[in-house]
Design goal:
Elements (H helix, E strand, L loop, with lengths): L4 H14 L4 E6 L5 H8 L10 E8 L2 H6 L10 H18 L5 E4 L7 H8 L3 E2 L5 E2 L7 E9 L22 H5 L13 H10 L9 H5 L10 H21 L3
Antiparallel strand pairs: 1-2, 2-6, 3-6, 4-5
């Protein structure tokens, strides 16, 4: 049975924290700024008055550590499987909503990066990835779901870019093909070509990401780095083969 009011919300927060979902936000879909509202509305997903968008993410390795205690041997994508289970359980058990609309993981092409920026989680970086002032490049979106549960909206605060005060910018120096630039857009094509060419080096680990000093204590452990790098490369190769490239 779900707990009532703020007590249920607080208990749900603590329950999520213990599982490594240490980035959380409850957003008002009716208060999106114009650019975010346009990107959202382009998906065809209606914004219903009173509806909350719940965002859950992981910063660092706490979720990975918790997942190692779970039996996920039969799951094709353990992170997505865990995220779905946790999202549906917290909504029903603590918020009293047995049927939230789970958008991510899923097929809905919602603007995750824009949502994360508006929530105050992150800002753009030269690597084509967003960077968190706290976790650096070591964070990820795990859940986005809509609920009519009466959850308190998260306080939103302006987020300053840690890149603006990084004089050395080791991320730029570390890229072997110059795909990471200071004032120009990240060269995704050049990066991908290098990853395909050097599959056991750049293919599964980004030297620029590893060189970033922001949030270094939250860097993923080696096994987690290998897991994400290998899956990312496999996905890129699948797209390349499907396109005949």
């Amino acid at each position: 049975m779900a707990e009532s009011g703020n007590e249920g919300f607080t208990q749900g927060e603590q329950w999520l924290e213990r599982r490594g979902f240490n980035l959380r936000a409850v957003l008002d879909v009716g208060a999106f700024p114009s650019d975010l509202a346009s990107a959202w509305d382009a998906t065809g997903i209606p914004r219903i008055p009173g509806q909350r968008l719940v965002m859950l993410g992981m910063g660092g390795f706490a979720l990975w550590d918790w997942m190692t205690t779970q039996d996920l041997s039969n799951e094709a994508d353990p992170f997505d499987a865990v995220s779905r289970r946790v999202a549906l359980e917290v909504a029903e058990r603590f918020w009293g909503d047995p049927i939230p609309r789970l958008l991510y993981p899923g097929d809905a092409l919602i603007p995750l990066q824009q949502l994360g920026r508006w929530a105050g989680w992150s800002v753009p970086s030269p690597l084509g990835l967003d960077v968190s002032p706290v976790f650096g490049l070591w964070f990820a979106f795990r859940v986005a779901m809509l609920t009519l549960a009466d959850l308190p909206f998260s306080e939103r605060r302006p987020t300053m870019s840690p890149c603006d005060t990084c004089d050395d910018q080791p991320c730029i120096q570390a890229c072997p093909v110059g795909a990471v630039r200071k004032k120009e857009v990240f060269d995704r094509q050049r990066c991908q070509e290098k990853r395909f060419e050097d599959q056991f080096g750049c293919g599964i680990k980004c030297h620029s990401r590893l060189a970033c000093p922001i949030g270094i204590k939250w860097r993923y452990p080696q096994r987690q780095l290998h897991y994400h790098g290998e899956r990312s490369l496999r996905g890129l190769l699948a797209l390349k083969n499907a396109s005949g490239g």
